[in-house]
Amino acid sequence: MLKRFLLSTGFLLMTAHAATAGPLVLSFGGGGWNNQSVSGVCVDVDNRRGSREDQIRWGGGELRSVAGQRGGDACWLDTVWQDGYYNDLATVSGYNFDPFDGSRTFTDGTAYLNLGTFEHVNMPVYQMITETSYTLTLEHNGSGAPITFDLFFTHNETDNQGRTDCCDDIVSVAFPVVSAILQVGSDSYLFQLLGFSPTGLPGSFSSNFQSPEFGTTTTALWAQITHQPVPEPATLTLLGTGLLGLGAAARRRMRKQSQA
Q1: Which of 34, 71, 83, 98 is deepest in the core (most CB within 10 A)?
Q2: Please, which residues have CB within 8 angstroms of residue 44's CB and are 6 or more apart in sequence?
Q3: What is the pLDDT tens value at each position of the chain, 260 positions in all?
Q4: 233-259 vs 2-20: helix axis angle to the nearest 10?
Q5: How far apart are CA 76 and CA 59, in angstroms?
Q6: Kind of pairing, strands 147-156 and 179-184?
Q7: Nearest to residue 132, comparing CAs of 181, 176, 104, 172?
């Protein structure tokens, strides 16, 4: 009788927990570069919805209207190696950020999430920005507001001194301290922003990048998701009821033994 009672109580506990627990689903909710106005510098921002990368470019020149260009304008740039103004995002300095596509589902344990790929395209230019920021928003199926944070980039465009065979630029990132508890049913998930990993694997993070001239430096932004199951009040009530039942059964058994 006691074994049957224990089995039925355990079954009720598992059933009650499974009925309200659920996995966490994270998806990209939006993002983009924030244009930093710098006197004398033309900054071209091209933020795109969906899975396509967001771009910001600079290098000098004039902001002119361009038919068919997203936003209706673009920088017409005067480079150090070609006379005249022309519009070409591929041959000027800038940043790209490609946020992760679709959605990810998390259940037990700890898992890592690649939030997107950052690139610095380094070309010899004579006008540049000194800082900018990227806003990233993540949607989720838990309670509470979406997760939104800003990455602040400081840019040191080293002086090429008229040469095209040097010099490395220095990109620095100020990481915000971002952590959030996302509640899905009876389960909690801890979201933590980790930072950029130049190796492509979480665990070795950097906030400074040395970017060679005529090169593209690529790194990935990582976060960590940790499942933290929390007992429900209903589960705790069932557990207390089960313990009371066990106590009553033990008392009855002791009375029978004393009467015998």
Answers
A1: 98
A2: 55, 56, 57, 58, 63, 73, 74, 75, 89, 94
A3: 544 433 444 433 343 444 456 799 999 999 999 977 676 677 878 888 766 789 888 875 666 665 655 555 556 655 444 444 445 555 678 899 999 988 999 999 999 999 999 999 887 776 788 899 999 999 999 998 999 999 999 998 876 655 555 678 889 999 899 999 999 999 999 999 999 998 777 778 989 988 888 888 999 999 999 999 766 554 444 444 544 454 555 556 655 556 55
A4: 180
A5: 9
A6: unpaired
A7: 172
Task: Answer for the pair 207, 47: CB distance below 8 angstroms, yes or no.
Answer: no
β-bridge mates for residue 39, sequence order: none
| CA-closest candidate to residue 230, choices 176, 178, 185 | 185
pTM, two decimals, is 0.73
The CA-based angle 53-54-55, given to 5 degrees, is 115
Instruction: Give the separation between CA 4 and CA 203, rounded to whole angstroms.
Output: 49
